[in-house]
Design brief:
about 400 residues; alpha/beta; Rossmann fold; 3 domains; six-stranded mixed sheet; three-stranded antiparallel sheet; 16 helices; 11 strands; about 45% helix; disordered N terminus
């Protein structure tokens, strides 16, 4: 086992932090119990220690299934499958690369190829424009990297994007707190509960058989309440290049804590929910890969129209929440964004806009959309999210 004999508590703290990042509820008490088990069993009892820690850290079937991979990834990195050690760095597997490449291809496909979409790209937006071709050619001629190579290299670049375990824990707790504050919507369905508000006559009659027909054990029901559906749309255009990694980190936290559906957009819209929810230690590589390689230009209005008509057509209702992470600068017609936001509001959904600046951006399209947005929040750090959590519901 790849432990540090002189500092077992530090190694275990890093392991516990990784477990928490993947959704396992490992607190101070569990961490102390794991340390005591390690000291009692010793480093030579690897299998027994593996089983003891698994029983302490896993609280659900999902945790139990995740445990083998997480344990191997942290303590035995040399055994990882699908990865190759190059220059001392662990490079992501081909599956992640392929998923990101497919994402870029889907987002850069001509708009006319999508049913009901015929809006042309602007010169700066078109991925196949002559300027883009010349830039790629000049890069190759100078011995530099092509755009495809830039996207692939972004999979394993972490410069300036490292998150400390305490920051990840803070983000996870904030996401859980905000998700708990989102007001659940009562439905027409009822389910068994004790105590309850309505008598479950059928279940009460079934129970009475054991008592000779006397209803001595009545069954009760309460009205089922469902949490609101959360949608997060993150801007990954060139103007948001420095802010998108933070936004996607936050979006992933809510994809895990609140089952949010996550989308990214620049000139097109694409869903990345499965990529964000997939259990893996290569979280930063995913985020870097999603944000890298996109050109200039942002079509917020067109992306919102696609979101309403195609992606969330059957799920937008009066309990839905739509969060937009963007600076608001749109290359569409300034009047198109208010109309697109109004289409979201017409379904009953509530729209909240998070911007990376202290003040609401002065973009013309966004200034005309104030009436369609419920709240604006600055979001440049975790402290901003903590402040917003006091009023988000």
């Amino acid at each position: 086992m790849n432990t540090q004999a002189n500092a077992p508590s530090q190694s275990l703290a890093g392991f516990a932090a990784m477990l928490r990042e993947h959704g396992l509820k490992v607190g101070v008490s569990e961490q102390q119990a794991m340390l005591q088990a390690a000291l009692a069993l010793g480093p030579l009892q690897g299998q027994r220690l593996y089983a003891a820690w698994r029983a302490m850290a896993c609280h659900s079937a999902r945790d139990w299934r995740q445990w083998p991979e997480l344990f191997e990834r942290y303590w035995y990195p040399q055994r990882l499958k699908g990865q190759v050690r190059v220059s001392g760095q662990m490079r992501p597997s081909r599956d992640l690369r392929q998923a990101v490449q497919d994402l870029h291809k889907n987002m850069e496909a001509p708009a006319a190829s999508v049913p009901g979409k015929a809006a042309p790209h602007t010169a700066s937006d078109a991925p196949g424009s002559s300027q883009h071709t010349e830039d790629a050619g000049s890069l190759r001629a100078m011995g530099g990297a092509s755009r495809h190579e830039v996207e692939v290299e972004a999979l394993h670049q972490r410069d300036g994007q490292m998150w400390l375990p305490q920051d990840l824990g803070t983000l996870q707790q904030l996401a859980k707190h905000i998700a708990a504050r989102l007001r659940p919507r009562p439905t027409r369905r009822w389910h068994s509960a004790q105590p309850g508000r309505r008598l479950d006559l059928r279940q009460t009659l079934r129970r009475s058989v054991a008592w000779g027909g006397e209803p001595l054990r009545p069954a009760w029901m309460v009205q089922r309440r469902e949490p609101p559906r959360l949608f997060i749309l993150a801007d990954v255009s060139r103007s948001m290049e420095s802010h998108a990694p933070l936004f996607l980190r936050i979006a992933r936290a809510f994809a895990v804590a609140a089952q949010a559906r996550v989308f990214v957009f620049h000139t097109r819209l694409a869903e990345i929910t499965l990529l964000m929810q997939r259990d893996s230690s290569a979280i930063q590589e995913k985020i870097n890969a999603v944000t890298a390689g996109f050109g200039a230009g942002t079509r917020i209005a067109s992306s919102l129209q696609d979101f309403v008509r195609v992606h969330a057509k059957a799920q937008l209702n009066r309990s839905a929440r739509v969060w937009i992470f963007s600076d608001g600068f749109d290359t569409d017609n300034p009047d198109a964004l208010p109309a697109a936001l109004q289409a979201v509001r017409a379904r009953g959904a509530r729209v909240t806009w998070f911007h990376p600046t202290r003040a609401v951006p002065a973009a013309a399209a966004l200034q005309r959309s104030h009436a369609c947005v419920e709240r604006f929040y600055p979001l440049a750090s975790l402290s901003d999210l903590a402040v917003a959590s006091r009023s988000l519901n």
